[in-house]
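Job type: complex structure
Entries:
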Amino acid sequence: MMFAQLLPPLLRGAEITAQITLASTLLGALFAFAAGIGKLSRHRALRWPAVGYIEVFRGTSLLVQLFWLFFALPIIGISLSPLSAGILGLSLNIGAYGAEVVRGALQATARGQREAARALNFTPRQTLWRILLPQALPEMMPPFGNLAVQNLKDSALVSLITLADLTYQAQNLRNITLQTVPILTATLLLYFAMALVLTAAMRWLERRVRYAAGHER
Amino acid sequence: MNPAVRFRQVTKRFGDLTVLEQFDFEVAQGEIVTLIGASGSGKSTVLRILMTLEELQDGEVEIEGEPLWHERKGGRTVAASEQHLRRMRKKVGMVFQQFNLFPHMSVLRNITEAPIHVLQLPRAEAETRARELLRLVGLEEKADAFPEQLSGGQQQRVAIARALAMRPRVLLFDEPTSALDPEMVGEVLNVIRQVAGEHELTMILVTHEMNFAREISDRVCFFDQGRILEQGPPEQIFTAPREERTREFLRTVLPDSGRT
């Protein structure tokens, strides 16, 4: 089988991988902010669920989380499509790591900034949104970039819950054609290319965020 | 008239370290009081308790006769709620050693942000007032600059304008010139002088600028190990201190005072 014939199924898989990565990174960012901010809340009702979520998802295997969402959840009555389960599992996982990035960046904001905000009588919520987050956001971007690439690579695990992503297609092709070396080499290169694009996109986003945070009017 | 500020039997501990013990202190309305003494003697803690940046373990603090850290609820005195603290904080402003300007906001926005979002002033009014204050501190032309583009002295002058924009009744200065290069100290002291002259404000300053303290203060308090060991009019404290420890302190900070 020619390389040209191997490529179309791999590209179809890559497209699924790209979609899943994009969707779960965006949804994961949402979880990250919710849990990262929640963990710093004065209210236990917000803090404890945030801590629980972060610890559970950082402390268990992503593969088992995916299996649980896809195979265990239907048994207790909630059926998710492979795509939903894949995106949800990846975003919950990446969100838990992202939450620690959000928390760390917020806590690293100088204590003087919080004291100045207090002296000017801002509410805790105003302090978060107007003073702390705009300063912390640019600091979160490089670690977020790492997590996004991590997420891309982790997404290979969704092939094990029957999603036809790049890894799934590669395995499938290999079983049919037995051309292990070209297929897996092409697969590696496709992941690498997507990682490069993702890294470039995150750099661009980081510059935008820095600009917006520094020149906000 | 109630005193602007009153501490009654206040105790403040950091872990095992007692910074203030059964501390009493009063400042009259409109009075300018300077706190001097070695570092770690509790001066800054007094300001930080007034700004509600530090809680106290025991005792009472009042601002204009109203308890700061307590409130009366159904005839009982309970620890202050966040609501009560926010209401009381309106009366107090603070200028920090490290300026603490918001680096992501222009100078103008540093000054207008709290008046607009905390005091709910219309933006136009807040900006007009901010420009007046910038004129007062001599930085009218820097309205659109960002803090990092300013010298330390200029940043501190903006910070003073920012504190004044909230129209506090009591303004606290926590070593306002200690983080500055020597050539910038003068410009900040000039602004503080001017503020003292033009505004009906109660001011409490912690400073190591003894000549400035002598010139600006109605009263100077010498702190030693969490107590006010000696206080009085600046002329008395600086020329005829009664306590040996005060003399000792003044000798170390004013090495040439014996000659003048």
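Summary: Residues 3-39 of chain A form the longest helix (37 residues). Chain A touches chain B at residues 110, 112-113, 115-116, 118-123, 126, 130-131, 134-135, 213-214, 216-217 (CB under 8 Å).
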